[in-house]
Recover the amino acids of this structure.
C-alpha cells in the first residue's frame, strides 16, 4: 500500500478551517505542540476514496506568508522546508466566500511557491443571502487550480475535497503571479547569487525578519548575507507585492465573482451597533460574564458534588472489600483520591469551554477584544485576557487552559502567570472559616466587617493579577507582535459539532496532559501523610490507646463526648417512653460509639503528627512562626498543596475532630491556644496573615500541572511557585509583625 | 494637514490616499488597507480608542495610533 498523502490545511482566521478539519478527520485527531514552542499542532487522519489515507495537518490561521507572529512563522517554516516530514504533498487553502478577495492573497502566495494547492470556498450556504454568484469554471482556469465549493454548516462539498486531495498529482504547480516585476533589477541580482533556488522562495526567506523574527534559515544557507536592501526598502517592496497580488485577484474576481451589495448589509451592521455600543455593549458583555461565572461557580457544583460522593463511596468500598493493608490504602486514599481530584475539575472545564467555544464560534469574542482593549492595555494585556481572568475567580485550571485563545504568546504567558492570583473557589472555604474566627461581627455603613473582608480579598486578588501583569509586561523580553489588528468576523450561529469537539478536546487534554502530574503529586502527598519513619508512627495505635487509658481523652474530646452524650440523653428522655434497661442500653451504645469515634480521631491526629508530613511541618515551624502559625497550621499549609480547601480538613484531623461538622472545627480552632502563652492561636494578626498567605501563595498542584502543559516547560510553573509563594510569605510576615 | 482615519465620524467613509507604509503593519495592507480603497468608520470605542472600520470589505479593529498613519480623503455624505 502506498504511503499516506501529506495534506496541510491553510487559511485566514475565521474561514471555518477548523470546521473543515473536523469534518475531514472526525474525532481521529491529535492535538499537541510543535517541538520547543507553544503553538498548537493539530493532526488527523482522513480516509479518501479508493482506500488511500491522508494525513491532515491543520496549520495556524494566517493572512499571508509575511509572518508577524510565532503562529504564522510555523506555517512559513513548513512551506519553505521540503525536507520536513510534514511537508505537504498538497495544500488545501480554505477561504470564505464572503472574503474571497482577501483570502486569495494567501492562495496566490502558496501557488507561487510551486506547491500543488486546492482552493476550498467555504460558507457556500451564505451565498444566496449575501447575493453572491461565482463562476467556478472561470476561477479554476484563472487561478490554475481545482476548487471545492463547501458548506461545513450544511455538510456539503466535503467529499469533493477528498476527491481533489486523492487526485492531487494532476494539480498544476505553476505560479500565479510573477513577483520579480516589483523590482526586476533586484531579483536579477538575487538569481545570479543563488542560481539553483526558486526566486519567490528566496524572497520569502529574505523578507521574513522584516516584520517578525528571522526564521531558521536551514533551507537556504547564506541568505542572511544577502542584504542589499534596508528594512524599509524591503517593506516597501512587500507593499508593492501586495498591491500586485490584489491587482491580479481583482482582475479575476471582476469577471468571476458578483455580489449584490444591497443584500450584503443589514444583520451584521445592526448587531454590531448593539454589541459594540458604548453602553449596551458593556452591559451585554457584563451579563455574559455573569452567566459564565454562574455556570462554573454554581451550576458545576452539582456534578462536582456527585463526583465527590462517588469517589468517596468508591474509596470506602475498596477499604471494605479488599484486605486491609498498604496496598488497599494506596488504592483507596492515594490513587482513587488522586483520580477523583482530576475528574472533579471536568464539569468546570467543560462549562467554561462550552461558553468560550460559543463566543468564539459566533464571532462575539472579537467584539469583546474591541470593547476591552483600552481597559486592559495599561496592563500589557488585550481584551482576550478578560475571559480567563474572570473565570479564574471560579477556578484557575480551566482559566489557564482558556488562554489558548490568545494568539499573542507574550500576552498569553502573562495571563497564564497572573491568573492564579484571582480568588478561586477553593480559597473560599479557607477564607470563610478564618474570617468567621478572627474578624469581629459588626457593621460598617450597613455592611458587615466579615463581608467587607471577603470582598477586599477578592479585590486584592484582582489587583495582584493586574499589577503583576504590568510588571511582567515590562520585564519579560519576548518578541511578539506589537501592533493591534483584530478582524471582526461575521456573526454566525455556532456549529454544535465544533462546540462539542472543543469541549471534548479540552477535557481530554486536561485529563491526559495535566492529570498525570496531579495523580503523581497526590500519591506522593498521600504517602507523606500516611507513612512515617519513627517508632511513634508505627506504634501510633497502641500509643494512643495507652494514652487514652492512662490519661483519658483530650480535654476537647472529653467535653465534646460529654456534651453529645447529654444531648442524646435529653433526646431520649423527651422522646417516646423507654424502659430503664432500654434507656441504659441505648446510652451505653452511644457512649461506645462516641468513644470509638474520638479514639479514631486521636489516632489519626497522632499518625498525621508523626508522619513524614508531620515531621516536615514541625521542621518548618521556625519558618512559619514569624507569620504567627504553629506546626499544625504549617502541616495544613503543606497539605493545601493538593488543593487549598484541604486546609480545613487537615486541621480537623490534626485537632482530632470529625471533619464533617464545620461548626465543630471552627469551635476547636477558636479554642486552640499558643504554646508559650494562653492567647488564642487564631487571632486578628495570625488570621489576617493566613488570609493574605492564601490570597497570594501558589498552592495548587493542579494549576501548576496545567501551566506546565500550557507553557510546554517546567520553567514557568516553577517560577510561579517560587515567586508567588515568596511574595505570599513576605506579605504574611509583614502583616503579622505589624498587627501582633 | 491631511485628514486621517481618526477624523471620520461614525458611519462616514473616506478613500485612502497614502499610508505611512514603512511603519504601518503589513497585516493592514494584506487586509486591504491600500491606496484607492474605501474605508468606513463602523464604531468608535469609549475614549475614541480603538476604532472599528470596514476597509475594502474587511471588518477590522485597530488602535487610534495606527489609524493616524492612514491618510484619507473624506467622502461627503451623498
Amino acid at each position: 500500500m502506498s504511503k499516506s498523502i501529506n495534506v496541510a490545511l491553510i487559511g485566514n482566521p475565521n474561514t471555518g478551517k477548523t470546521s473543515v478539519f473536523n469534518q475531514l478527520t472526525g474525532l481521529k485527531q491529535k492535538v499537541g505542540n510543535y517541538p520547543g514552542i507553544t503553538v498548537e499542532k493539530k493532526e488527523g487522519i482522513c480516509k479518501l476514496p479508493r482506500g488511500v489515507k491522508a494525513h491532515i495537518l491543520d496549520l495556524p490561521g494566517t493572512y499571508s506568508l509575511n509572518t508577524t507572529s510565532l503562529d504564522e512563522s510555523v506555517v512559513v517554516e513548513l512551506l519553505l522546508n521540503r525536507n520536513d516530514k510534514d511537508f505537504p504533498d498538497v495544500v488545501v487553502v480554505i477561504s470564505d466566500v464572503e472574503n474571497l478577495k482577501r483570502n486569495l492573497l494567501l492562495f496566490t502566495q502558496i501557488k507561487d511557491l510551486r506547491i500543488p494547492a486546492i482552493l476550498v470556498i467555504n460558507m457556500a450556504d451564505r451565498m444566496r443571502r449575501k447575493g453572491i454568484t461565482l463562476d467556478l469554471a472561470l476561477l479554476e482556469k484563472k487561478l490554475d487550480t481545482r476548487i471545492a465549493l463547501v458548506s461545513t454548516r450544511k455538510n456539503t462539498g466535503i467529499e469533493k475535497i477528498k476527491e481533489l486531495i486523492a487526485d492531487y498529482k494532476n494539480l498544476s504547480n505553476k505560479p500565479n503571479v510573477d513577483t520579480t516585476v516589483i523590482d526586476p533589477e533586484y531579483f536579477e541580482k538575487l538569481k545570479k547569487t543563488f542560481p539553483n533556488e526558486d526566486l519567490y522562495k528566496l524572497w520569502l526567506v529574505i523578507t521574513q525578519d522584516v516584520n517578525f523574527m528571522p526564521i531558521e534559515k536551514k533551507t537556504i544557507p547564506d541568505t542572511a548575507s544577502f542584504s542589499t536592501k534596508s528594512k524599509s526598502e524591503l517593506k516597501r517592496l512587500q507593499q508593492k507585492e501586495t498591491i500586485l497580488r490584489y491587482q491580479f485577484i481583482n482582475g479575476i474576481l471582476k469577471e468571476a465573482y458578483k455580489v449584490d451589495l444591497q443584500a450584503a448589509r443589514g444583520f451584521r451592521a445592526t448587531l454590531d451597533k448593539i454589541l459594540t455600543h458604548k453602553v449596551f455593549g458593556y452591559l451585554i458583555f457584563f451579563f455574559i460574564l455573569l452567566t459564565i461565572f454562574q455556570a462554573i461557580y454554581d451550576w458545576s457544583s452539582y456534578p462536582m458534588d456527585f463526583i465527590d460522593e462517588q469517589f468517596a463511596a468508591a474509596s470506602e468500598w475498596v477499604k471494605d472489600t479488599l484486605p486491609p493493608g498498604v496496598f488497599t490504602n494506596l488504592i483507596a486514599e492515594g490513587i482513587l483520591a488522586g483520580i477523583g481530584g482530576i475528574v472533579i475539575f471536568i464539569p468546570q472545564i467543560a462549562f467554561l469551554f462550552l461558553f468560550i467555544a460559543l463566543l468564539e464560534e459566533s464571532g462575539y469574542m472579537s467584539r469583546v477584544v474591541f470593547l476591552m482593549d483600552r481597559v486592559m492595555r495599561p496592563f500589557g494585556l488585550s481584551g482576550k485576557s478578560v475571559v480567563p481572568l474572570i473565570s479564574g475567580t471560579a477556578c484557575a485550571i480551566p482559566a489557564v487552559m482558556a488562554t489558548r485563545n490568545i494568539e499573542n504568546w507574550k500576552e498569553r504567558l502573562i495571563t497564564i502567570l497572573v491568573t492564579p492570583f484571582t480568588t478561586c473557589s477553593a480559597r473560599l472555604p479557607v477564607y470563610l472559616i478564618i474570617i468567621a474566627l478572627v474578624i469581629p461581627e459588626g457593621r460598617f455603613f450597613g455592611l458587615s466587617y466579615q463581608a467587607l473582608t471577603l470582598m477586599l480579598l477578592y479585590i486584592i486578588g484582582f489587583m495582584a493579577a493586574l499589577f503583576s501583569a504590568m510588571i511582567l509586561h515590562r520585564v519579560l523580553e519576548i518578541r511578539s507582535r506589537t501592533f493591534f489588528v483584530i478582524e471582526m468576523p461575521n456573526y454566525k450561529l455556532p456549529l454544535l459539532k465544533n462546540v462539542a469537539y472543543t469541549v471534548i478536546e479540552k477535557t481530554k487534554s486536561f485529563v491526559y496532559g495535566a492529570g498525570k502530574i496531579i495523580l503523581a503529586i497526590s500519591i506522593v502527598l498521600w504517602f507523606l501523610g500516611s507513612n512515617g519513619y519513627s517508632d511513634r508512627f508505627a506504634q501510633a495505635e497502641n500509643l494512643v490507646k495507652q494514652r487514652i487509658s492512662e490519661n483519658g481523652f483530650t480535654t476537647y474530646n472529653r467535653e465534646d463526648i460529654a456534651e453529645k452524650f447529654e444531648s442524646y440523653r435529653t433526646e431520649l428522655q423527651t422522646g417516646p417512653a423507654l424502659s430503664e434497661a432500654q434507656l441504659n442500653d441505648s446510652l451505653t451504645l452511644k457512649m461506645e460509639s462516641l468513644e470509638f469515634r474520638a479514639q479514631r480521631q486521636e489516632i489519626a491526629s497522632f499518625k498525621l503528627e508523626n508522619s513524614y508530613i508531620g515531621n516536615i511541618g514541625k521542621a518548618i515551624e521556625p519558618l512559619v512562626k514569624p507569620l504567627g502559625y504553629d506546626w499544625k497550621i504549617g502541616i495544613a499549609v503543606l497539605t493545601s498543596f493538593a488543593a487549598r480547601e484541604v486546609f480545613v480538613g487537615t486541621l480537623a484531623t490534626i485537632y482530632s475532630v470529625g471533619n464533617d461538622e464545620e461548626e465543630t472545627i471552627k469551635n476547636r480552632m477558636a479554642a486552640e491556644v499558643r504554646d508559650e502563652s494562653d492567647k488564642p492561636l487564631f487571632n486578628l494578626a495570625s488570621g489576617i496573615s493566613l488570609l493574605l498567605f492564601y490570597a497570594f501563595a501558589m498552592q495548587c498542584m493542579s494549576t501548576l500541572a496545567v501551566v506546565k502543559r500550557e507553557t510546554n516547560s517546567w520553567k514557568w510553573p516553577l517560577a510561579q511557585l517560587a515567586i508567588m509563594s515568596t511574595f505570599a510569605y513576605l506579605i504574611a510576615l509583614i502583616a503579622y509583625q505589624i498587627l501582633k | 494637514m491631511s485628514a486621517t482615519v481618526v477624523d471620520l465620524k461614525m458611519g462616514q467613509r473616506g478613500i485612502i490616499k497614502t499610508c505611512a507604509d514603512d511603519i504601518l503593519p503589513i497585516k493592514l495592507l494584506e487586509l486591504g488597507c491600500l491606496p484607492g480603497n474605501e474605508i468606513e468608520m463602523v464604531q468608535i470605542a469609549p475614549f475614541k480608542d480603538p476604532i472599528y472600520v470596514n476597509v475594502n470589505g474587511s471588518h477590522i479593529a485597530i488602535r487610534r495610533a495606527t489609524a493616524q498613519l492612514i491618510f484619507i480623503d473624506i467622502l461627503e455624505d451623498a
Remarks:
- Chain B touches chain A at residues 21-22, 25-32, 34, 42-43, 45-47, 49-50, 52, 56-63, 66 (CB under 8 Å).
- Chain B has a mean pLDDT of 87.
- Helices of chain B lie at 26-30, 64-67.
- The longest helix of chain B spans residues 26-30.
